[in-house]
Each structure stands twice: as C-alpha cells, then as structure tokens.
Write a structure and sequence with these properties.
Elements: E1 8-12, H1 18-33, E2 37-39, H2 51-61, E3 64-67, H3 71-77, H4 87-102, E4 113-114, E5 133-134, H5 143-152, H6 177-181, H7 198-211, E6 213-217, H8 224-234, E7 241-246, H9 250-263, H10 273-286, E8 290-295, E9 314-319, E10 333-334, H11 340-351, H12 358-370, H13 375-388, H14 392-402, H15 404-407, H16 421-424, H17 426-435, H18 437-446, E11 454-455, H19 456-462, H20 467-473, H21 482-492, E12 498-500, E13 505-507, H22 510-518, H23 522-539, H24 548-568, H25 573-588, H26 592-606, H27 613-629, H28 632-646, H29 654-670, H30 674-692, H31 697-712, H32 716-733, H33 739-754, H34 758-776, H35 781-796, H36 800-816
Parallel strand pairs: 1-2, 1-3, 4-5, 6-9, 6-10, 7-8, 8-9
Antiparallel strand pairs: 11-13, 12-13
Helix pairs in contact: 2-4, 7-8, 9-10, 11-12, 11-13, 12-14, 17-18, 18-20, 18-21, 19-23, 23-24, 23-25, 24-25, 25-26, 25-27, 26-27, 27-28, 27-29, 28-29, 29-30, 29-31, 30-31, 31-32, 32-33, 33-34, 33-35, 34-35, 35-36
Length: 819
C-alpha cells in the first residue's frame, strides 16, 4: 500500500432524518480523521454544477463508493419509492449499475455499510454477494470500522493488532459552505441548465496548474462564460479568492475592478479610477492562491494593463480571439461544441423532460445535432419548446423547413448571452468586412460548403472564380501559400472559423453558415451559390489514382454543392462537370450506386442543352457505374446513347470513341454475347494502335478486355499474350500502387489457375492483393472479387483453411463496401 496516498471515498445514502444525517457526518469525519478523503453531499447544499454533474464527478473521482444501506435506501435503489422522492439515490444506483455492467458484474469499488446489523437485509439486490461492513463506531477502535479501513487502504482485511495497521495522516475536514462563502468571490450566477464540459474543465485545471495562465477560446454562443463560471465553482475551495471582471471594454474592466476591490476590502475601492486598478494589481502581486477571470477578452492587448506582471495565482481569460502570445499564453484551449449526448441532456433539462419517451428522446438527439450542439442555439430552441409546450418531434419537423427563421422566433431566457444566434456574430461580421473585402468574401464562400475540413488548396484553386476581391488577394497563392493564411487570419481572429494547421484545413459552424447566408439577399445568395460550384469544380480534378487523396479532401464539398445546385437552380457546365467527376471518384472508391445517382443528375442537367461530347463522357461514366452494380441493360443503353454522339467524331476524339467501344464490348462479354463483343473490342484495339500508339493505358484496357473475352470462351492460348501485355503496359505507364495494375494481375492469375499453373497463379494473386488492399482500402467490391478469386484457387489447390480465411476477408470487404 502507498501510505502517502489518501484514498478517495464517496458516501451514498438516503436522506431520512437528522439522526441519520448525524451518523453519516460522523462516518465522513471518522474516515477523514483516519486519512481517507471522504465526502458526502452533506457538504454541498447547492452544488454549483447541479446534482447530476456533481454526483457523476464524485463517482468518477472516488476510489470507493460506500452505500449506507437502510430500508429507505433499498426502496429507492429498487425503484419502489414514490415519484420525485429520493432521486439522488436513484441516480447513484444507476451509475453503479452502469459501471457493474461494463465490468461484467465484477465489483471492485462499491462497498456497502450499515449502522445496525438489522439493516444488512436492506442491501440492494444490485450489491448481492458483496461484503457488508457493520459500523458500531467511527474510529479504528471499532472492529467493523477497522475492517472497512483495511479494505479502503489496501491492507489485510482480517482483524489484527492495532500495531499491525498503517494509519494515514488525517485529512482536513471538508470545507463547509459557510467557510467557503467568507472568501472573496464575485463570480456571476450560473445558468441552472449547464451540462457536461467535464473534460474541458479538467484540461483547464491542468493548464492552470502547469502554466498559471489559460485562455478559453471560441466563437460566440459556445458557452465560454458558463464554462469559466463552472470552473470557478468547481475549484472554489482551492483558491484563496475568486475574482471576476468583464473585459469587453476598458470601461467594463474598471467597473468590475471596483467590485473586486470592494470584495478585497481595499481602501481604494471607493477612490478615483487612477488608484483603483494599481491597488488591485498590488494585492494580486502580494497575495497567492487566487483565481482571476477576465471574461470576453476579445481584444487581448487591451487587458494587458489589468494583469499583474508576475502572478502568484491563476489567470483565466475567455475570448473569441485565438492569439494570446502578448499575454504569455501560447496554447489557448479551443472550446468545442457540446458532445451530442451533452447537448441532448441540455435540451431535456432545459425543457423539463425526462427523456423516457424513446421517440421524443430520439428527436431531442436529432435536434441537438441539427443545431450543431451549440449551447446558444440549444437555449433558444429549448426556451421555445418549453414556452409553447411543443414536442421535440414537432419542433424538429418545423426546424427542417424553417431553419434559422424558427430559431430566431425565441430570444434567450437563461444564461449570460446578450443576443440570439443571428445577432451574436453580427459585430464580428462587420469588423471582418471593414478589415478585408477578400476575407468577408471567403466567409461567404465558406457558408455554401460543407462545414468541416475545408482544404486550403480549395481556396487557392478556386480563387479566380470567387470574385475580384478574393481573386486579387489570392492571386499568388500557388507560389506563396501565406497569402491564404493572411486572409483567413481575419476570420480566425474572432473564431468564425477554426484552423487545423497540421492537415491544412479549416472548419465553420453550420449555424455561422446559416447566419452568413441569411445576411445575403436572394440575388447575392444565387451569385455565391454559382461561385461556390465553379470554385469547387476548378479544384476537383479528374479522379485518376494519383489524385485520390485530393479528391477525398474535396468530396464532402462536392456533395454540399449538389445541395446548392438544387436549392438555387444552378445549371451550368461547371455544375455538370463537378457532379460527373464526384460520381466517378465515388465509383473508384467502391460506391457505384452513389456514382449512378450523381452522374444521373449531371445528365439531367445536360438534357436542357444540345447533345455534345461532355454528355457522352457522362454516359460512359454512368455505364461504368451500372456495370459495377451488375445492371447490364441500363449500362448498354447509356453506351448506345454515347455512341450516337461520338461515332461521327472518331477522328477528332479517338480516346472517347475507344472508351465507348471498350465499355460496350465488355458489357456484351458480361452478358455472354461473345459474337457481339469481339468486333467492338478488336475495333477499339485497332484504333488505339492506329491513333494512340501501342503503350497507353487505354490500349492496355482494350488488350485486357479482349483477353478476358477469350478467357471466358475457354481459348487460353488467345487470352494469354493479351493479358500478359496488359500487365506489362500498366506496370510501365501507371504508378506502382495503381489498382488497375492489380486488376490486370488478378485476370492473369485467373488464367494461370485455369491452366493448372497454381504456383504462378498464387504469386500473381498475392501481388495483386498487395497492391489492391492499400489502394482500395479494406471495404471495396473489387478487393472482395479478387479475394474470392484467390480463395477459389486455394480450394482447387487443396488448402481449405487458407481458402476459408480469404473468403472471410472477402465477406468483410463486400459487407463494408460502399460506406
């Protein structure tokens, strides 16, 4: 046992009578006198963070929980108490049940105790089988108390001579509310609905303990002030004084420093301003162990004169800014949105709902997600629902139709917010507009994208399409990437966007997007919708294997553009091009159904104009996606429509003609129409040789498909040179990890297997899978097909166990494909 460590214990009991309270307090004090950090809710009249949060934190921090078992305790623990009575025990038992479930029923922390042997029958069923300690007294002279003490301190539980017992140094009695109230304190009252943020408060504590100064950063509406209040209240007992000042302006700082001086009982509290601030700073310099919170310090430079140069205490700032190096804070903590479960819990608490109705609980969770888990938005929605006595389901249905307009119908009721979602960022928007036209336009552009992971290269590539201000400001971005950072700095300054430096992206909250859009009139919204589609299209390259990573960074924004096209009726060449390339990328990544849908939309847009070559390109892509789905009839129809467009331009567009011929011939092969497939594939190969040379990847496709045709017909001698040549060309002209090489190797391996050359076939399959696995990922239909082919070889070679393993991988790949 570590004799220097004081075990932490939480005492769980039913509030019954003054006599019972006295015995619980005696147990708490007896444990603390023996060196155990024990606490019960008797020391908390009104927990600052609320009972649920307080109990959860005590459970998390405690090494042991001691349920004091009585008839009332068991009744409440087993749900037999009258509604609304004994909710604390009910919640604590719920926490115990959750932990025991996760531990598979193994109880390592919950130690039942009784004050009377007759109460042993009242141990809750949840703790059946646990050792029960009967406490006749609350010192080590009592046998039951000593036995309990030995368990809590990790010593031998059997009765032994007192000299055999290691007794820890006493722990000071828990601070009473009256003692705490005597310390200087001017922190605002919290909202009664504050929820979660445990991890944030823990990080704040660690940062302040380590560095003495910390900043909580984030855009308006995240609840920075409430987090600071919660931190101050949670750790109030650890500070000699907790002092608060509003830092929106110098005037508010001076005003609140006067209140601080009054709490500190300084003579200068009622004196002139010139002496007031120095007097407070002198006190901070001369005393230690205090906490000073400067709230809403959105201009960090302006608060420098209100901080002591050397602080023997802790300083916490809340701010929309993100840079605090002038104040000696190099790593501010970014406050995220609430976690989804915290946001749902807030809505339930805010509206006084229990969440017992599964449909309502699900609607609350969906609403929280729709509001981006933003505390300010949750407060507005919760206040509306409570005031109108509406259901979560009804509010959610209306929100999907009216969005920001519905949210703005209710003002803030609880909390420290000074405006609604729409107004809380208005000043920051105006400041950005005054500082930089280009930054303001980048904010408007960002409002039409997917909210998360916007890549910086999108700004550089799309700049020429985003209006004169952005085009001019980012003209040199390709050679000098810092010009992008310069313009984004105006947005990060107020936390309107959040940068991820390591992956070169930024994010914007969906409600910030909604407000930015709402500030634009209908004509401006249409303009920015068109600009956004053009910019994303310019950045979204044709999805060859070598640019898959870039396509992956842009695919969410391409999908967002699809919604923009529909909402604003954008029907343009860039719109059709973007839908086509996004669809083809998703086809390459094993999502042919989504590819069919997107390319189908591109084709629908194109039908409004005359038939032209881009339409043929889209038809070929659609056919390829249908082929991957096994839908050969619609694939054939799309290719025949494409042929009607391209057959008259064979000399001008030989590559496109070869694509159509190859695909049409392959569809006939798959349908078993070999006599119709061969002339098409031979014609494609001849055109490749005549117009394109004999080594491009397109020629390899013709060789490959013609070789497969001969293989399917059983003509191995005819297939072999074609498939071998297809492998050679693809290895020569493609990158080493390109999955098209794997596809060619797989086809040649199948031929070798059919020829009975099993060793050669296995070597080819292994090479194919070594390429396809990393390139395609573990969940892809093409990988699944290769694994199935490999498994068939292994079974034919008399290796059923290896075949079963390959088949299992194939099932996993096919089961997760298209995700």
């Amino acid at each position: 046992m570590d004799a220097t460590r004081h075990p932490k214990v939480f005492i769980s009991f039913a509030h019954e009578s003054e006599a019972h309270f006295a015995r619980v307090r005696a147990l708490e004090n007896g444990l603390r006198a023996a060196g155990i950090d024990a606490v019960s809710d008797l020391v908390e009249l009104f927990p600052e963070e609320g009972w649920v949060e307080w109990m959860e934190r005590r459970f998390e921090e405690a090494d042991f929980v001691l349920p004091v078992c009585t008839e009332a305790y068991r009744r409440r623990a087993e749900g037999k108490e009258a509604p609304g009575k004994g909710d604390g025990v009910t919640w604590e038992i719920r926490l115990m049940r959750r932990e025991l479930y996760r531990a598979g029923g193994q109880n390592a922390r919950f130690v039942p105790v009784v004050f009377d042997a007759a109460d042993r029958v009242h141990v809750p069923k949840l703790l059946d089988g646990s050792t029960v300690f009967t406490l006749g007294g609350f010192t080590l002279a009592d046998a039951g108390f000593e036995a309990l003490y030995r368990v809590l301190t990790g010593q031998r539980p059997e009765r032994a001579a007192l000299g055999d017992l290691v007794v820890l140094e006493a722990v000071a009695p828990a601070e009473s509310p009256a003692t705490r109230a005597a310390r200087p304190w001017n922190v605002p009252a919290p909202t009664p609905y504050f929820t979660g943020r445990t991890e944030v408060l823990d990080h704040l504590r660690a940062r302040l303990e380590e560095e003495g100064r910390a900043a909580l950063s984030g855009f308006g509406g995240l609840g920075k002030t409430q987090c600071a209040i919660a931190y101050a209240r949670r750790y109030r007992g650890d500070y000699s004084a907790v002092l608060w000042a509003r830092a929106e302006s110098v005037g508010s700082l001076v005003s609140d420093f006067r209140v601080v001086a009054q709490r500190l009982k300084l003579d200068e509290a009622e004196g002139p301003e010139a002496a007031l601030v120095p007097a407070v700073l002198d006190w901070l310099q001369a005393n230690s162990g205090w906490l000073l919170v400067l709230d809403n310090a959105d201009q960090p430079q302006s608060v420098k004169g209100f901080l002591p140069p050397e602080a023997p205490g802790h300083i916490l700032l809340t701010s929309r800014a993100q840079a605090f190096d002038a104040l000696g804070i190099t790593h501010p903590l970014d406050l995220p949105e609430l976690a989804p479960e915290e946001a749902q819990r807030f809505l339930l608490a805010r509206t006084g709902r229990s969440g017992g109705d599964p449909a309502e609980a699900a609607a609350a969770a969906e609403l929280a997600e729709a509001l981006g888990c933003l505390p300010l938005a949750l407060e507005q929605a919760g206040a509306y629902i409570l005031d109108r006595k509406s259901s979560f389901q009804d509010y959610l249905a209306s929100y999907h139709k009216r969005r920001l307009a519905l949210l703005e119908k209710q003002s803030v009721v609880a909390g420290d917010y000074t405006g609604s979602v729409r107004t809380t960022w208005a000043l920051n928007f105006r400041e950005v507009e005054e500082a930089s036209d280009a930054a303001a336009d980048l904010l408007r552009f960002s409002a039409f994208l997917a909210p998360d992971d916007i890549p910086l290269e999108l700004l550089a590539a799309g700049a020429p399409h985003l209006g004169p201000a952005v085009a001019g400001a980012l003209a040199g971005a390709a050679e000098d990437p810092l010009v992008v950072h310069d313009e984004l700095a105006w947005l990060t300054r107020y936390s309107l966007v959040h940068r991820d430096v390591e992956v070169r992206t930024y994010s914007i909250h969906r409600l910030v997007q909604a407000v930015v859009r709402a500030e634009l009139d209908a004509e401006a919204q249409r303009l920015w919708a068109e600009r956004t589609v053009e910019a994303v299209n310019a950045a979204f390259l044709p999805p060859y294997y070598e640019v898959w990573d870039q396509c992956e960074r842009l695919i969410a924004h391409a999908r967002a553009c699809e919604g923009v096209m529909e909402e604003f009726g954008v029907n343009s060449g860039p719109a059709r091009s973007l839908l086509y390339h996004a669809g083809m990328y998703l086809r390459e990544r094993g999502q042919p159904a989504e590819a069919v849908r997107l390319i189908g939309r591109a084709l629908a847009l194109g039908k409004e104009g005359p038939k032209h070559l881009p339409m043929a390109v889209s038809l070929v892509g659609s056919a390829s996606s249908y082929r991957d789905l096994g839908a050969y009839l619609p694939a054939e129809k799309a290719l025949l429509d494409a042929w009607a467009i391209v057959q008259s331009v064979a000399d001008e567009e030989p590559k496109l003609v070869v694509h159509v011929l190859n695909n049409l011939g392959d569809i006939h092969r798959l349908k078993g129409e070999f006599d119709r497939a061969e002339p098409l594939l031979k014609r494609a190969l001849a055109l490749c040789t005549e117009k394109l040379g004999d080594k491009p990847a397109l020629a390899a496709r013709s060789l490959h498909d013609l070789g497969l045709l001969y293989f399917d017909q059983g003509w191995h001698a005819g297939a072999e040179p074609l498939l071998e040549r297809a492998v050679e060309i693809r290895k020569e002209v493609l990158q080493p990890g390109d999955p098209e090489i794997a596809r060619a190797l797989d086809s040649l391996a199948r031929l070798r297997a059919a020829q009975g050359r099993h060793a050669e076939a296995e070597a080819l399959f292994v090479r194919a899978l070594a390429i396809a696995g990393p390139a395609l990922g573990p969940h892809h239909p093409r990988l699944a097909q290769m694994l199935e082919n490999y498994a068939a070889l292994l079974r034919a070679a008399g290796r059923p166990d290896d075949a079963a393993a390959a088949e299992a991988r194939a099932v996993a790949a096919r089961g997760g494909a298209g995700r």
